[in-house]
Design the sequence.
């Protein structure tokens, strides 16, 4: 595995689960609204805006946590949707976000991005497997 491949894998192991969480409303309610569970929406925001990507300016993460221009475009769209939901959550609680009228759009964009990211990762795994069997 190349260093570039290792870097993107190390970032995506955080980003892809965050996107999958945003695409799954039943999971959000079962996990984020349970005070006994570590993960909440704040964790997702840190992952997507601070630690492993920047959903406001995702172009900088092409080749780091995002594989394609399509992923960059969808991540930017997700950042906009999350910002719109944030306006409707004045107390910044997970409950407010999940109840905002913008939340269905967040879920929809996250679902599209999740499908693209997972398909791209599976394509990379197939390519890696094929290159190893050729050796």
Sequence:
């Amino acid at each position: 595995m190349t260093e570039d491949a290792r870097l993107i894998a190390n970032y995506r192991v955080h980003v892809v689960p965050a996107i999958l969480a945003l695409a799954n409303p039943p999971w959000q309610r079962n996990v984020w609204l349970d005070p006994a569970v570590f993960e909440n929406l704040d964790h997702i925001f840190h992952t997507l805006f601070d630690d492993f990507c920047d959903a406001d300016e995702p172009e900088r993460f092409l080749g780091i946590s995002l594989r394609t221009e399509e992923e960059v475009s969808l991540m930017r769209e997700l950042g906009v949707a999350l910002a719109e939901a944030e306006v409707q959550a004045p107390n910044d609680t997970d409950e407010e976000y999940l109840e905002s009228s913008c939340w269905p759009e967040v879920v929809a964009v996250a679902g599209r991005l999740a499908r693209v990211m997972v398909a791209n990762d599976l394509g990379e795994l197939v390519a890696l497997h094929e290159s190893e069997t050729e050796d």
In short: The CA atoms of residues 21 and 28 lie 7 Å apart. The chain has six helices and no strands.
